[in-house]
Amino acid sequence: MTRLVTGDLMECADCLCLASRRAARTMTRAFDRKLRPFGIRATQFSALAMLSLRGALTIGELANSLGVERTTLTRNLELIEAKGWVKVLVGEEDARARVVSMTPKGRAAVNAAVGAWREAQNGALAAVGNSGASAIRKLSSRAIP
Prior knowledge:
Elements (H helix, E strand, L loop, with lengths): L6 H4 L5 H20 L6 H13 L2 E2 H8 L3 H13 L3 E5 L7 E5 L1 H37 L5
């Protein structure tokens, strides 16, 4: 097999999109390892924490708050609803809307796991440093031109 690499493509080896996707997977795996003893994944913990902080939200509001697609969130919600951690009900004002609320069992799950989340958070912060954490937060809250 012959490789053909043009000068213009050499810089692709340092692609920020690819690096950020790898970094996100690495970080997610680290959080998942810490949360595993509590039977919760990082994505599930984030959804429960957001509901704990903001109260009941429509699926659209929760997806927006978490920065995920509605379809992805819907799949994740099915898993935590099956565990009895959330309830998804028809909206009172709009029957087309689905409102997600945390159950007492969900509140207990997130409270039990918050120490493990904190360990993962501190590990991630140690790995990227304060300036790296600030850069990640800045990028996650705005569009890149």
